[in-house]
Amino acid sequence: MASTNQELASALRMFSRFFDLIHQPLAVINERGEYVYYNQESADLDGYSIERAMGKHMLDVYPGMKEAKVRCFHR
């Protein structure tokens, strides 16, 4: 697992400059649903700072997603 996390961190560092230059909201989550990348466009769109999002579970950042997911499964 540590190797996978190191590889992911290395890849994110390599691509982060590109991600920042595309001027589109972009977020990357790990296998546990935690943000490992969250660009400024995402922060501007969501009103949730990069610092607050990083390392948090996506359902902690977007609690409404859980409710929407549950609704989708019940349809």
From TrEMBL:
Domain PAS per the UniProt entry, residue ranges: 11-59
Residue ranges of the TM segments: none
Top-level taxon of origin: Bacteria
CDD domains membership: PAS
Coiled coil: none
InterPro entries: PAS, PAS-like_dom_sf, PAS_4
Gene3D superfamilies given in the database record: PAS domain
Family annotation (SUPFAM superfamilies): PYP-like sensor domain (PAS domain)
Name listed for the protein in its UniProt record: Regulatory protein
